[in-house]
Design brief:
The protein is of the alpha+beta class. Helices cover about 15% and strands about 35% of the residues.
C-alpha cells in the first residue's frame, strides 16, 4: 500500500510540474554566455548510440601532381532517436588532423545523416566513450543560425 501511495504521489508531482521548453538533454549544454540559444531550437535531433563502426580509408588521386595521399578517419554511429519528431538515422564523425578550424556540424534531412567534425586528437576520447558508456548525440539548430552538436554520456555515478 505504501508503494502505491508513493507511486501516485510521484505520478501527480510529475504531471503537475510545468512543461519546460528547454531541449532534451539541455543539462549537457555549456553556459550560454553569448546568449546564442535564447530561443527554442528550430530543430533538435537526439540519438542514443547503439552501434558504431570505425572506417580508416586510403585515397590516392593519381591524376594530380604531386600525388596527394590521404587517409580519412571516420566513425559511423547508429542508434535510436529519442525525441518526438527526430528523424536522424546515423551520425558520421569525421576527424581532421590538418585544418586550423573545423567545419560546422551538418544535418542532411534527405539522408537523415548528421555529420560532425572533430580534431584528430579527440579520436581516442570518443572511442573510449563508445566502449565504456552509453553515448548520446545531440544536434540543435536555432533561427539565428547558431548550431550546437555534441557527443555526451548520460550522468555517470563516480566510484
Amino acid at each position: 500500500m505504501r508503494l502505491l501511495i508513493r507511486s501516485l504521489a510521484a505520478f501527480s508531482l510529475i504531471f503537475c510540474l510545468p512543461l519546460s521548453a528547454a531541449p532534451m538533454h539541455s543539462q549537457f549544454l555549456p553556459p550560454d554566455d553569448l546568449t546564442v540559444r535564447d530561443a527554442e531550437p528550430e530543430q533538435q535531433q537526439l540519438l542514443q548510440v547503439t552501434d558504431y563502426s570505425v572506417v580508416v580509408g586510403a585515397q590516392r588521386q593519381s591524376n594530380q601532381q604531386p600525388i596527394p595521399v590521404t587517409s580519412p578517419l571516420m566513425i559511423r554511429l547508429k542508434g535510436k532517436s529519442l525525441n518526438k519528431g527526430a528523424t536522424i538515422a546515423q551520425v558520421l564523425v569525421n576527424f581532421d588532423g590538418e585544418s586550423k578550424s573545423l567545419k560546422k556540424p551538418i544535418y542532411d534531412d534527405k539522408s537523415k545523416t548528421l555529420t560532425l567534425f572533430y580534431p584528430q586528437a579527440q579520436y581516442r576520447v570518443i572511442i573510449d566513450l563508445l566502449r565504456n558508456d552509453t553515448v548520446y548525440v545531440q544536434f540543435l539548430s536555432y533561427a539565428n543560425g547558431h548550431i550546437w552538436a555534441d557527443l555526451h554520456t548520460g550522468a555517470v555515478r563516480s566510484r
